[in-house]
Specification:
nine-stranded mixed sheet, 16 helices, single chain, alpha/beta, five-stranded parallel sheet
Length: 524
């Protein structure tokens, strides 16, 4: 495996995705976790990758590399800030750049390196040197390389863009190989991981499934029962199928109708899951209690936590009916932990909390059941791949993600039943037309948002003062970053007309054109 040291870059999760796409397992450790040596001993990595950062290595108290990493004598690849702090700690010099470099740049390879094998070099300049399109994002630059290092590549604005210590297998690149704008970036990362670190390709769907089933078998003892909250989303469904393969009817799937789902036909969902996937499902009607507990609450973090606490309370009430229930299973994935800022490999004193996820931020400390989260080290696209390997239909695996708190976080502010019903109607039209236009499968996620804002409209020569809804569609593979989808104007116009004509309480529709970052995919 590879350990990624996170210095606080927005691209750190992309590094992890790229390494896993290569077929090698990796995990992210925050730079100042107190037990780094124990982690290294536990995981026995083949090498380290140092991320970029929003910090400057020229400042006092900037993030630094633990001595444990150097003393391991394993290969190291520093990216952007990772290269700068690497050079600085080994005796080089870093200064503020005279010319900042943000965006695309031409990287010229001036010396042979294992990091850039001949078979990935297909463009050359008039000197006969290989040229790569790379993505730069830096204000500081290395101005003097440490003793024993060689200069490998440069750009017009950055004369020391790639450095290497051949004997120690330490590399520094000023550009970002993890982003798609660096055309050969994945090839470069593959060279480091497979050739320099000598990792074997073993992180494949069959192997992941084998490891997950072994994990479940080791955790859950005979006669112990497991309760799982089945939402209908791919994460909880894959979790349920994996558990069902190991413990069969000792898995009790609780399908809670919390009034925050997109469909009113929950009985149909329960029937499909029971018959098609042979799951033992208990259907609980709980709309009234959820809406009652959410009355008067408008803060998005508090809404998530109330939904989570209500969810757990109902679970514990159900668990009393089963004397051998010991475990609560959840479909938590890696990005949930990262965005909630409580992933165990992160610093205890600095948590990068983007938002609390329902199955991360809402769990009470005195919960009687133990938690089992088989998918917590997987990204969304990894879950989908193993879902296909488990035999799930493509349209089920690639259905758009639906958040655990449901439409509770797609209604801005306080949640009311009226708002839920309106949003369900709007979303049904939007998704239906995306499928009719053959656009649904080309989009990572699409949904609607209810805004508690009234706007003046005119219908049949009559003044109306009704609600506003927003439509959102993004393109993404890992859900850590996302680009807004430029839906055809004619399509948006048609959908808008349908919504206005069919949903009487709506007078205006807007389209969200922000990407992630700076915005999150969900509005709350």
């Amino acid at each position: 495996m590879i350990i990624i040291i996170d210095f606080g870059s927005q691209y750190t999760q992309l590094i992890a995705r790229r390494i896993r796409e290569i077929g090698v397992y990796c995990e992210i450790f925050y730079w100042d976790i107190p037990n780094i040596q124990e982690k290294i001993n536990e995981f026995s990595p083949n090498g380290f990758i140092l991320s970029g950062s929003v910090e400057s290595s020229t400042q006092i108290n900037s993030p630094y590399i633990s001595e444990s990493i150097f003393s391991s004598k394993l290969p190291i690849l520093g990216i952007c800030y990772g290269m700068q702090i690497l050079a600085l700690q080994l005796g080089g010099k870093v200064e503020k750049s005279k010319y900042r470099e943000f965006g695309e740049a031409k990287l010229e390879i001036i010396r042979k390196s294992l990091l850039f094998p001949n078979n990935i070099q297909d463009i050359f300049n008039n000197k006969g040197n290989p040229i790569f399109d790379v993505w730069m994002s830096h204000d500081d630059t290395v101005t003097s390389i440490p003793k024993g290092f060689s200069l490998i590549a440069k750009t017009q604005m950055c004369p020391l863009a790639v450095i290497e210590h051949t004997e120690k297998k330490i590399y520094g690149v000023q550009f970002h190989p993890e982003v798609t704008h660096t055309i050969k970036g994945k090839n470069i990362l593959s060279q480091f991981v497979l050739e320099i670190c000598q990792c074997q390709i073993s992180w494949t769907p069959p192997k992941i499934i084998e490891n997950l089933m072994q994990f479940i078998s080791n955790k859950i003892e005979k006669k112990e029962q497991v309760i799982l909250g089945l939402s209908g989303g791919i994460d909880s469904l894959v979790t349920a199928i994996l558990l069902n393969k190991i413990i069969d009817k000792r898995l009790i799937c609780i399908f809670i109708d919390n009034g925050l789902l997109y469909t009113n036909d929950t009985k149909k969902i329960v029937k499909i899951f029971s018959e098609k996937y042979k799951l033992n499902i208990k259907h609980i009607l709980a709309e009234d209690i959820f809406l009652q507990n959410l009355t008067g609450i408008s803060d998005p973090e508090e809404k998530r936590k109330v939904i989570g606490r209500t969810f757990i309370k109902i679970f514990e009430e159900q668990a009393l009916k089963y004397p051998y229930v010991k475990w609560l299973a959840q479909g938590t994935i890696y990005s949930d932990l990262i965005e909630s800022g409580i992933e165990s490999n992160f610093s205890l004193r600095k948590k990068n909390i983007i938002k609390s996820h329902h199955n991360v931020g809402g769990l009470p400390k005195n919960m009687k059941m133990q938690l089992i989260e088989p998918l917590k080290n997987l990204f969304k696209d990894e879950v989908r791949k193993i879902g296909l390997d488990l035999g799930l239909p493509y349209d089920v695996v690639y259905q758009h993600p639906f958040p655990g708190p449901g439409i509770g976080i797609r209604i801005i502010g306080e949640i009311k039943k009226e708002y839920c019903d309106i949003l369900r109607h709007v979303d049904r039209i939007f998704i239906e037309e995306l499928k009719n236009a053959n656009l649904y499968s080309k989009i990572g996620q699409a949904f609607s948002i209810f805004l508690p804002v009234r706007s003046v409209g005119i219908m049949g020569d009559e003044r109306k003062y009704n609600w506003v809804v927003a439509l959102r569609a993004v393109d993404t593979t890992d859900f850590m970053t996302a680009k807004v989808v430029k839906l055809p104007y004619d399509f948006l116009s048609y959908v808008s007309n349908r919504i206005i004509n069919e949903v009487r309480s709506i007078s205006r529709i807007v389209y969200d054109i922000t990407s992630k970052p700076p915005s999150t995919i969900e509005w709350e």
